[in-house]
């Protein structure tokens, strides 16, 4: 009698540890509780956007994750490799562009001379390979933010923190920066936390959007829309829900009116 064949079943892979984890995190300034028992995880390679009214604790949370504020012995896990891009590019005007990108980098043992090539490679990634030796004062606003992004990415962070980095840019430059950030995120796959006031920006970029209210995560919205994200009916539905949670009533999108027909005496009809 034939013996039954035994098929080996591979063991399930252990889930990856989160890049960011906060358990019951609280931050207070005197009697003012800014973050109130916050629980948050961000998975490796996940893109998260954080919305909230002014004073809701967004910047305090970002500063905590960046290591700029002490955690006071609380249960907070962040990677050592992390970088921040602020609304202001914060470039040193007395250093050329490539030296701004290379700030803090050092040649490793036996690797002397690698700092400039690393800075150059990062600047080429953000489309500024032709501005290596420019002075910061000669950069446009978009170029300055690209430089700040290169300075963050050259450190190969596991966690990239973006603090309203596009708020001061014009609408067209902002859209170009959105495309650039998504391209770089796909290439390097850091976990990203984007702090923004722009609901459309959050929906366009993030895998998950959180609304912070009175120091707590009040809403979590997973964005299951394929990229690039056109402002279609599904996009607008997510937008209305998020705006409602922010206390804003969004008007329903209006259909585009048909072009008017103009009749001329000859009988010709012109659009």
What would your notes on this structure say?
- Helices cover 28% and strands 22% of the residues.
- The chain has 271 residues and is α/β, with parallel strands linked by helices.
- It has a domain at 20-91 and 156-249: 3-Layer(aba) Sandwich (Rossmann fold), CATH 3.40.50.300.
- The longest helix is centred in the middle third of the chain and has 18 residues, at 171-188.
- It starts with 19 loop residues before the first strand and ends with a strand.
Fill in the CATH topology of the domain at 20-91 and 156-249. Answer: Rossmann fold
Largest sheet properties: 6 strands, mixed
In N-to-C order, the SSE pattern is EEEHEEHHHEHEHEEHEE
CATH architecture of the domain at 20-91 and 156-249: 3-Layer(aba) Sandwich
Tell me the helix content. Answer: 25-40%
Provide the CATH top-level class of the domain at 20-91 and 156-249. Alpha Beta
Strands side by side in the biggest sheet:
5-6-7-3-8-9
General shape = globular
Question: What is the number of helices?
Answer: 7
Mean pLDDT: 87
Q: What is the radius of gyration?
A: 24 Å
By DSSP, the count of extended strands is 11
Poorly predicted tracts of residues: none
The termini sit apart by: 84 Å
Structural class: alpha/beta
CATH H-level superfamily of the domain at 20-91 and 156-249: P-loop containing nucleotide triphosphate hydrolases
Sheet-strand content, in percent, reads 15-25%
Keywords:
271 residues; alpha/beta; Rossmann fold
Describe what is shown at a glance.
The protein has 271 residues and is an alpha/beta fold. It contains 7 helices and 11 strands.
């Amino acid at each position: 009698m034939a013996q039954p064949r035994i098929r080996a079943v591979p063991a399930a892979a252990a889930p990856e540890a989160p890049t960011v984890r906060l358990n019951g995190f609280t931050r207070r300034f005197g009697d003012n509780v800014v973050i109130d028992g916050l629980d948050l995880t961000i998975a490796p390679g996940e893109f998260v956007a954080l919305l909230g009214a002014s004073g809701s604790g967004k910047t305090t949370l970002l500063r905590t994750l960046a290591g700029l504020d002490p955690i006071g012995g609380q249960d907070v896990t962040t990677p050592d490799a992390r970088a921040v891009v602020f609304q202001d590019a914060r470039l040193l005007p007395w250093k050329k562009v490539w030296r701004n990108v290379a700030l803090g980098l050092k040649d490793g043992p036996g690797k002397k001379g690698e700092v400039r090539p690393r800075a150059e490679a990062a600047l080429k990634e953000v489309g500024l390979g032709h501005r290596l030796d420019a002075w910061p004062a000669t950069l446009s606003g978009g170029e300055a933010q690209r430089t700040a992004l290169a300075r963050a990415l050259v450190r190969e962070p596991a966690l990239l923190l973006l603090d309203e980095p596009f708020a001061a840019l014009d609408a067209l430059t902002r859209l170009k920066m959105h495309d650039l950030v998504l391209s770089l995120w796909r290439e390097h796959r850091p976990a990203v936390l984007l702090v923004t006031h722009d609901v459309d920006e959050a929906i366009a970029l993030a895998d998950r959007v959180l609304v912070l209210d009175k120091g707590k995560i009040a809403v979590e919205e997973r964005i299951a829309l394929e990229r690039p994200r056109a402002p279609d009916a599904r996009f607008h539905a997510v937008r209305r829900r998020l705006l409602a949670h922010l206390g804003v009533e969004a008007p329903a999108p209006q259909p585009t009116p048909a072009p008017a027909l103009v009749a001329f005496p000859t009988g010709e009809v012109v659009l």
